[in-house]
Protein 1
Amino acid sequence: MKKTLLILSVLAVNLYSFGQSSVALIVDAGASKYTISRHIYGHFSEHLGRCIYDGYWVKESMPVPKQYRIRLDIVEALKKIQIPNLRWPGGCFADEYHWRDGIGPGNQRPTMINTNWGNVTEDNSFGTHEFLELCDLLKTEPFIVGNVGSGTIEEMSRWIEYLNYDGISPMTNLRKQNGREKPWGVSFWGIGNENWGCGGSMTPEYYATQFRQYSTFAKNYPGTSLRKIACGASGTNYQWTEVLMQALTGGSGRVNMWGMDLHYYTRPPRGKLGQGSATNFTEATYFTIMQTALRMDEIIKGHDAIMTRYDSLKRVALVVGEWGIWTDPEPGTNPRFLYQQNSLRDALIAGSTLNIFNNHCDRVKMAQLAQTINVLQALILTEGPKMILTPTYYVFDMYKVHQDARMLPVTFTSPDYVLGDEKLPALNISASQDSLGVVHITLVNIDPNKSITLSTTFNQVKWATVTGEVLTSPNITDINTFDKPGIVKIVKFDGAKKQGDLLNVVLPSKSVVLLSIK
Ligand code: AHR
């Protein structure tokens, strides 16, 4: 090992002296301690804009394959990337949702106003049964967020009984009456959403008390233990985490909290006209946005440090229940529907963020990108019966190999991506080894102008071949459209070569690469 590292350093120095930047990467299977939970690769679908209605759930007249009103072309696309969980019904919508309005015969369900998202009329045609049917079709685990902001403890506790109890009870009877014999066994359970904001404008102290009370009556029924998820902080609000950890995990006051749900979006700088466009942005804007996106690493470290003071064994999960880029809505669309296009830039954000999550998998055990279809950083965009896969979709397709694999620590020094007087790390990487022994490395080069040369050594990995895939395009602004759906997509990667024990890689500018090493 020492000898190989010495050769590698000499090689790196030589490459530098020829004026070509080279990075010495070490992938260390000997230091592997943690598993990357598949739940890091989760998604979020809210009753917002065209995510549920005119997304998954379409009119009977829509000329696409359907089961009931669920679009099966969307189901097939999402199954391909193996989505492990789906968070629903919100978002802000969760804290004004009353589940009893969304069960029973469709024509008898009351309507409501979706006050957060454009005051549109919610007809409640997509409710508990429809969501869980969708999860069955997707072969994914549901993560339901209960209403704390405007609901009651009784309402939440009856919902759990309706979902999870198999014995004789009023809620079991009601469920059966509505056509479902067996309970579903929903385990991921959110106690409110953003209760510091749209979920009730609560202080952390008040929310901690609410959590204690609501979670006391959120019962485990035979066969299903709830994994209760508290509302976590917004971005760098470390005080929220401190107060909750102290109130909920300390000594005799300890309650069952499986995770804390942090939300962090990559928002373009506010107030600067023209910087928020999803498709029309300069390199300067790109730089600022990447800077914001990469802060996810520092934010996770900040919350983890606080959590570790109360929970050194890392039993409480840091869930990142909402993340992604939030741009201006597409011109001409309802601004409260949050419909945005999705460019190569967004794929670079997705790849970088998932690398960050993988590398923090000791604490980050679940995450959800916002939001699956037609909202924010979507995987899929639809227009009537047409559907396109976004650059972000392809990142999840490439990264699915990390799900439930052993994380392999990586060591390297990133070259700088320099713009004017500022710089950012151009390169981010994560690696894992799956149950068959295959090592997967995902690499992102955010520099839009320069490729990166890497020379890789492995510790405790025997390998003979390397194959790869790459996602890139001539411009960071490139998008897939309904007319040209195949502009940004995965292609075979030929830039990785085995030379002796070394794996040499030339990583194109603005690219996401997956390497499979056997
Ligand atoms: O994802 C859109 C909104 O962003 C969610 O409803 C809310 O939780 C967050 O502020």
Note: The chain has two domains: 21-32+408-517, 37-404.
Protein 2
Amino acid sequence: MNTRRKFIKKSAVTAVGIPLINVSNCYGAQQEVEKNISKKIIPTVISTWENQKANEAAWNVIKSGGSSLDAVETGVKVPEADPEDQSVGYGGRPDRKGIVTLDACIMNADGDAGSVSFLQGIKHPISVARKVMEETPHVMLVGSGAERFALAKGFEKINLLTDLSKREFEDWKKTSKYKPVINIEQHDTIGMLAIDKNGDIAGACTTSGLAYKMHGRVGDSPIIGAGMFVDNEIGGAAATGMGEAVLKSLGSFLVVELMRQGRTPFEACKEAVMRIIKKQQFGDIQVGYIAINKEGEYGAFAIQQGFNYVITQKGQTQLIDGQFFKK
Ligand code: SD4
């Protein structure tokens, strides 16, 4: 961590544990500091879809005083390891060549980011993404380069294609009909955001991407600002659904920037969805956003009915149906 960051980190917590940003050299500094003093930290975990177990794993990290970064990594590793979750990690649906390829990204409260894409044979792409962030001068590694890096860091190479996903793929091949329509049953990419007891925000996103995608296709999930984005002064956002639509609007970055301009997490998610609706063909696709701000307020919005998300605060985990544009 460079000296400036260390300094900000040191000065970022007051005696009562309230995060302050060192803005003394900026215009409007006093106003900014006063605004932050009145903020109360609400440790929070939020994730896309029915990922209650992931939230609980993340919450346990936060409860015991761990960082939001450790929390989101621990949380999303739950569906990554679950063979029954066919959209994430081990057991994910393959591409049209029958190969499972994984995308993931992670960001910490210092604004550092790491990402892997088109990664094959590694159960926990999120942990590889974290190593890219922490142990390389880069943000993103892809394909065989990412795999080689993972193996060098001690990750084990395994077969990610389970019997169930293989059988479904064999069935799909009978028609090879490909219309990249995401419907509710076919996806549960996990995007997760967390605020820890220091008020620091981190995020993670991990997926096997669209089932039967073209070999080499990369979606939004590993792209910083598309699948997930965190700015520790403002909040974080994550996306799920049709990655192409999210990529074309850099959705998660947009949500965070809208919160910076004063929108609530819900309003920001809604506006990002409305951008897709205004500018893209949205009839058959699903995109859902989740967001949190620095005060632990949260919100979500999706194009279609059927999107849900999980929120954990004060040890209580709730599954919430997201609001949507179109029934
Ligand atoms: C992608 N956004 O690869 C991912 C898919 C997804 O739940 O969200 N699935 O486009």
Note: Residues 87, 187-189, 207, 209-210, 219-221, 240-243 surround N-hydroxy-L-asparagine (CB under 6 Å).
